[in-house]
Design goal:
Alkaline Phosphatase, subunit A; Gyrase A, domain 2; four-stranded antiparallel beta sheet; 17 helices; Phosphodiest/P_Trfase; hydrolase activity; Alkaline_phosphatase_core_sf
């Protein structure tokens, strides 16, 4: 699979704009003193285009579509943004996946305290590399995420500045960019994704969440120093998966036969099979799901290139069989009943999930 400019290039482009050697500015930061990344979780490019009246600040600025990564889910996407590597190289291969070294399923958004984030993802982060070159690196987000396993795995190396609401984030960015040296600042906003999961894309609550995200962007834009570029992007988009489109895995004996465990999420399922039964499991899943999902063996999906160049050791984390939903299909499971019950989902390869925004703002406030 050919990967165009995408989320994997975001921090590297910012680093290049700051003059850090070894990186390429593919996204057009230019020569800057301050680079800011604002990530709006779940606000895909297609969604922004279709509902742009609720985001006037974002739609008025120059922007384009770039690619997320597969699977289009937060751990894999933030792993790629944070390391500059595709998931096959950083190893966060899904919303949850089997970790052979612990013989447990790891859910990176709810990290097991006994599992070392650095052991799971030992590659250096771009924050670490840039920080060693004299750039002041900051990460702005809720206090609860400051020491999370996912932060320590893929976003370590930044000074964490806790901020819960829009004014606190604006104040934190102003503080981060107030010095005379070079700065790289990451701002995270979760609400669009959270509301989309619960209420659905296009709902009144979702439109209100998009407006608040746009208010955040407007607030950040208002205090950008002159020698500053801010890229607004997302980790993935989202699709609505109504109850009528759900396939309940455990309700079909052929989908659980010879299966040891199921991980992933409703749009991308990792299926771990009994030894010597992978072919049978793949055939049964393909027959049952038909046009509702593409079904791969591990070897097939790696060869397809969906994970990018894949380390042999990390490939063992990928399911023996991987099912990727088509259309609005949701493959629900008793193993994650709350997630399976949500109307808004992501993880698969539809344009609404895969395409994310790259919207650039330039500073106008006095430096």
């Amino acid at each position: 699979m050919t990967h165009q400019a995408g989320l994997v290039d975001v921090l590297g482009s910012a680093a290049a704009g700051l003059g850090v050697r070894g990186f390429t500015d593919t996204l057009g930061f230019g020569d800057v003193q301050h680079a800011v990344i604002c990530l709006l979780d779940g606000l895909g490019w297609r969604l922004l285009q279709e509902h742009g009246e609720h985001a006037p600040t974002l739609t008025a600025a120059p922007g384009r579509s770039i690619d997320s990564v597969f699977p289009t889910t937060t751990p894999s996407a933030l792993g790629s943004m944070g390391t500059g590597l595709l998931p096959g190289a950083h190893g966060l291969v899904g919303a949850s996946f089997f970790l052979p070294e612990t013989e447990q399923v790891l859910s990176p958004l709810h990290w097991d305290a006994a599992t070392s984030p650095i052991a799971v993802q030992p590659e250096p982060t771009i924050f670490e590399v840039v920080g060693r070159q004299g750039v002041a690196v900051s990460s702005i987000g809720p206090v609860a995420y400051g020491e999370s396993g996912l932060t320590r795995a893929v976003l370590r190396g930044a000074q964490y500045r806790p901020a819960e609401d829009i004014p606190q984030r604006v104040q934190a960015l102003q503080s981060a960019t107030s010095g005379t040296g070079r700065t790289l600042t990451y701002v995270y906003w979760a609400e669009v994704d959270r509301v989309g999961h619960a209420s659905g894309v296009g709902s009144k609550a979702w439109h209100e969440a998009v407006r608040r995200a746009d208010d955040l962007v407007a607030g950040l834009q208002s205090i950008l120093p002159r020698d500053c570029a801010m890229l607004v992007t997302a980790d993935h988009g989202m699709v609505n998966c109504p109850p009528s489109s759900r396939i309940a895995i455990e309700s079909h004996p052929d989908l659980v036969a010879d299966v040891l465990t199921i991980a992933g999420e409703p749009r991308v399922r990792h299926v771990y099979a009994r030894p010597m039964h992978v072919g049978d499991v793949a055939a049964r899943w393909a027959a049952r799901l038909g046009e509702h999902a593409r079904v791969f063996t591990r070897d097939e999906i790696v060869a397809e290139g969906l994970y990018g160049p894949t380390d042999d050791a990390l490939a063992e984390r990928i399911g023996d069989v991987v099912a990727v939903a088509q259309g609005s299909t949701s493959m629900t499971s008793r193993r994650d009943t709350r997630v399976s019950s949500l109307i808004g989902q992501h993880g698969a390869l539809t344009a609404a999930e895969w395409q994310i925004p790259a919207v650039m703002f330039r500073g106008e406030a006095p430096g």
